[in-house]
Design brief:
By secondary structure, this protein is mainly alpha-helical. It folds into two domains: 1-196; 197-340. The chain has helices at 12-45, 67-77, 81-87, 91-125, 134-156, 168-193, 202-228, 253-279, 283-308, 313-336. Helix 1 packs antiparallel against helix 10 (313-336), helix 5 (134-156) runs antiparallel to helix 6 (168-193) and helix 7 runs antiparallel to helix 8. The protein starts with 11 loop residues before the first helix and ends with a helix.
Length: 340
């Protein structure tokens, strides 16, 4: 959605200042969502996501303040299958160790809400927000609230009988919505800074479009792998049990999920290599394609090492964070090449 100076009821110097303020706010929200995605991945990897049995959007902002409250929450946790089948007998100390990570995850979500609403009101009152930008910001606010509800919908799937973890499908929905929020905020911020058309390179633009699609699909496929804990199997590369395509591809969800993720990641890396080779000759796109090439190379390496080392928490979290950086680089490249 392009902006022009007429959208800002101010003088040119004030226009530039307002655009920078808007962009800084939007990019700060992107950074907070990136942290949120990493925290969410860490809670899943450590099994912490089911430790809080209540959805209390306001009261839950405070941690337990008494031993009696800790015991009450621990007793709630003892009623779900994850405790009975995985963590039985790990005591209040063990419960606290998983509780704090999930509590931080939820608190960070609340802080994102505040970081959206408070600057939004301030910028609106000072007339720094163009009218044509308002519908998009309203939609983002609604989607942000929906993300909190989807998060609880995801967590609740872990309370079902015989379930010790969340539903992979609900995890993917939660992740996909986070990516939509991130991408929309990033694109809006970039457009605020550079409202005019970008470099005219039809071939590179088509590659950038393809890359955004491939990166998004690869991340979603990674979410399915994470939800199924599929990274704990087939810990060899590039073959899976000595085969390029695993024997159980059509009958084994874990085999198919991991193979699909590998295939999409490889297609993304190859497409990125072509885009880098093409973009290095285009001055305005050179920095974007270099950033793309570096992030894709780092991400692919992280993915292989994470798999070979059987998904250590630190590497897996870094892999998830770098996935968002690859998406960022792809979107920046596409924005550099946009027509309007």
């Amino acid at each position: 959605m392009p902006f022009d100076d007429k959208s800002f009821p101010a003088q040119p110097r004030e226009v530039l200042r307002d655009r920078r303020l808007l962009a800084l706010w939007l990019f700060s929200l992107c950074a907070m969502i990136l942290v949120m995605i990493v925290l969410g991945g860490a809670t899943r990897l450590t099994g912490s996501g089911l430790s809080i049995m209540e959805w209390a959007p306001f009261a839950g902002a405070l941690p337990p303040l008494s031993e009696a409250e800790w015991q009450r929450l621990y007793q709630l946790y003892q009623q779900i299958p994850q405790y009975q089948l995985v963590n039985q007998g790990f005591g209040i100390a063990g419960f606290k160790s998983i509780f704090w990570l999930e509590w931080m995850h939820r608190l960070w979500g609340r802080l994102i809400g505040l970081a959206f609403v408070v600057p939004l009101v301030w910028l609106w009152l000072r007339g720094a927000i163009p009218r044509r930008m308002v519908p998009r910001l309203v939609l983002l606010f609604v989607l942000g609230g929906l993300q909190g509800a989807v998060g609880w919908f995801m967590v609740a799937s872990g309370f079902f009988p015989d379930s010790t973890s969340i539903s992979p499908a609900r995890l993917v929905i939660h992740l996909a919505l986070a990516l939509v929020l991130y991408a929309t905020l990033l694109w809006t911020g970039l457009t605020v800074l550079r409202p005019g058309p970008g470099t005219d390179s039809p071939m590179l633009r088509r590659l950038a479009f393809l890359l955004v699609g491939l990166v998004s699909l690869t991340i979603v496929a990674g979410g399915i792998v994470a939800g199924l804990h599929a990274g704990l199997d087939y810990n060899t590369f590039p073959l899976m049990d000595g085969r390029l395509v695993p024997a159980g591809y059509f009958s084994n969800d874990i085999a198919s999920a991991q193979f699909d993720h590998r295939l999409l990641a490889t297609l993304t890396a190859l497409t990125a290599a072509v885009a880098v080779a093409a973009g290095l000759r285009i001055g305005d796109a050179r920095a974007a394609v270099v950033a793309l090439g570096v992030t894709v190379a780092v991400q692919y390496t992280l993915g292989v090492v994470t798999l070979l080392w059987v998904v250590p928490v630190g590497l897996a979290a870094a892999h998830q964070a770098t996935a968002v950086l690859v998406l960022t680089a792809s979107l920046v490249l596409l924005h550099t090449l946009r027509r309007t």
